[in-house]
Amino acid sequence: MPMYDFYCPACRTEFEDLVFGEETPVCPHCGSSDTERQVSAPSPLKTGAFPFKPGPVRPMPPRSAAPSGSCPGTACGGKGCSGQ
Fold first, then answer.
1. Confidence of residue 4 (pLDDT cuts 50, 70, 90)
2. 13: in domain
């Protein structure tokens, strides 16, 4: 069941609730059933294929420097650009 934001005009309270389909929850503050579903902004936090792995964004690990005398590419056959 997805999480939605709701507004209760009777007591001017905003709350969130897990609902299915077009269900309208009762206000937890005043008990009114006249609540309105609000449009929510999506969370910018993610780690992988949204929406399956939500979470904080992780920085990329630093690239290790290529050892001296070697070339990270294949243009020179991996012998190092200076040892062609």
1. confident
2. yes
Tell whether the torsion through CA atoms of 21, 23, 28 and 32 is positive or negative.
positive
- Indicate the number of domains in the chain: 1
24 in a domain, yes or no? yes
CA distances for 32 relative to 7, 40, 59, angstroms = 11, 21, 45
Domain that holds residue 37: 1-41
Cβ-proximal residues to 26 (8 Å cutoff; 6+ apart), any chain: 32, 33, 35
Q: What is the CATH number of the domain that holds 16?
A: 2.20.28
Each residue's pLDDT tens digit, 6-16 = 999 999 999 99
Element of type H or E holding 3: strand 3-8
Whole-model pTM over 0.70: no
CA distance linking residue 74 with residue 84, whole number of Å: 12
Angle 56-62-66 from CA coordinates, rounded to 5°: 160
